[in-house]
Amino acid sequence: MPPIADLFLFALALVAAGVVSGLLAGIFGIGGGAILVPVFYQVFGYLDVPEAVRMHLSIGTSIAIIVPTSVRSFTAHRKRSAVDTDLLKSWIIALPLGAILASVIAAFISSVGLRLVFVGIALLVALRMLFNRDSWRIGNELPKGIGNQIAGVVIGTLSGLMGIGGGVLNNTYMTSFGRPIHQAVATSSGVGVLISIPGIFGYIWAGWGEPGLPLGSTGFINWIAVALIVPIALVVTPWGVQLAHSMSKRQLELGFGVFLILVSLRFLYSIYG
Q1: Angle at 148 between CA 145 and CA 153, to 5 degrees
Q2: Residues in CB range of 150: below 8 A, 6 or more apart
């Protein structure tokens, strides 16, 4: 067992991650998974969780935390009438289907495979954030019909494989078709709800009976980490919502983009270093 002092430091790291993830949930409409997954990966590694299940456990636990933070963020944004409820209603099947598909993939993919998926998506998102221009658009109207449903499934699947609430991907999707960033952020909080709830059940199923999981785990979800972080994130999320409606996001986008690149390099080092 690690020394008590070291465990205390890691508990502080989890608390700090809870604060940051809560702020991000409000500011970007995301569940903070891009912060939590790499933190969990380090903590679970230090606690000697086997490499074969460590990334899976990090992603599943992050998904579980996204449920309350996304609900909290969605409620706050909806009070401001900023949510595109029609888009959410159109994805009522597509997003959960993508989340379930992600858990099925996670049940069969290796730890290295999951880390590479995280790195690939994180780098694309980071580049988008670092070099984003308001003038970058694919079109002026969101796709309809089958195109809209495919987008929902893809966002749900990729988000589920990364342990994120879909906010980063949905923000990119909506703004690429001319939607205002504040509407995208607000709607993304609802996307997180539709992805994370089925994602919990999927990652419990995917990890059921796996050897080497730490105390307090059900499948690929560790409830001790959830219990530590959720109360903090719930308190902090409304602060992020206030920031989202009162400030420019450019500096935050730059900071988040740099963070994603550093996390990606860390995961690449864990694979090839």
Answers
A1: 125
A2: 94
- Distance CA(270)–CA(265), nearest Å, equals 9
Give the tens place of pLDDT for each residue, 219-258: 999 998 899 888 887 788 778 777 766 766 677 677 778 8
Residue with tokens 């599943």: 60
Count other Cβ atoms within 10 Å, centred on residue 92: 11
Q: What span, in angstroms and rounded, lies between the C-alpha atoms of 257 and 152?
A: 23
Total residues belonging to the chain? 273
- pLDDT band, residue 16 (cuts 50/70/90): confident
Inter-residue contact 44 to 57 (CB < 8 Å): yes
Residue that has been written with the tokens 């589920």 in this structure: 160
- 199: its two tokens: 């994602």
| β-pairing verdict for 217-218 and 221-222 | antiparallel
